[in-house]
Amino acid sequence: MPEPVHEQIEYLPRIRIVPDPDQPRERIDPEHVGRLAKSLIERGKMLNPIRTRFDPALGKDVIVAGHQRWLAAEQAGFDLVPVIRSKGTLSPLDILVEQVVDNEVREGLRPCELARALDEIRRQSGGKSNAELAGQLGLNPSDFTVADALLSLSPARQQDVDAGLVGKQTAYYLARIDDPAMQDELWEQARSGQLNKEQAKAAVRSRAAHHNTKAGAGSGRITVKASGMSLTYRAEDGGLDGLLEALDTLRKEVRRGIDQGWDAKAFSRQMKNKVS
Beta strand pairing status for 50-55 and 60-65? Predict the structure, then answer.
């Protein structure tokens, strides 16, 4: 049995460490940094090392993960900071993935910061699916769908979301409304606290139903076939928003089937029994 690999912790002068200008976190929370600094002063040491990569051109270590901890160490007056240096050469994608994972585990990125990071990860991933990338990041595939919706909003509305004036899920639903006047009206309602996530979701469904009725598209079907199986979704079940919900539900049922040890035929029988 192989021996476990232990990462080596080094102590570097804080002034030999510099932040990464391309990190996904665009805004530092001074209150959070202050709380971290207070904790460092009380404990007298940093328990979680910063992850860095050595940049020969700069002659310094660049932060991969732990920017706010580095700032807190400065505020706490620490001259030496514990670091774990990445071995080998990290690609821009490797760095971004590690930064997103670290930020989400410790102190989540703001919604549109995360959306931009996910979009960049997908761009650099060489054609990996949302499901593959989500598994690598410890996220849900639907997080990429939400990210796409948020990035379709104007910069001003993205700022509203990041400032917490409009919730992420509410913004996701409102971004799907293709009538600018209607979206403007509902956005202002959400911004003033008069519209919640469920009401925004209902507005999207109402809009989709209106389009379907107007176009006479009540009986359309979408069929996806793969590995000898097929999945059919009826248009009357809802718009594409409804399709996403159906796929999320199916994913959960498939996971349950795997846990139960079912094969494809057993899973199909269970699903038929469930809807009959």
Answer: antiparallel
Strand order from edge to edge, sheet including 50-55: 10-13, 80-85, 50-55, 60-65, 17-18
Listed residue (81, 7, 101, 99) closest to 37, CA to CA: 81
Q: What is the pLDDT along the chain (276 residues), one digit of tens a residue?
A: 334 344 688 899 999 999 888 877 777 778 878 888 888 888 888 878 888 988 888 899 999 888 888 999 999 999 999 998 887 778 888 888 877 877 655 567 788 988 998 998 898 888 888 888 888 787 888 889 999 999 999 999 999 999 899 999 999 999 988 889 999 999 999 999 999 999 998 888 887 665 555 544 445 666 665 555 666 666 554 556 666 767 777 777 777 777 777 777 777 777 766 654
CA 243 to chain centre: 20
Specify the pairing of strand 221-226 against strand 229-234.
Answer: antiparallel
Q: Is-above-0.85 flag for pTM?
A: no
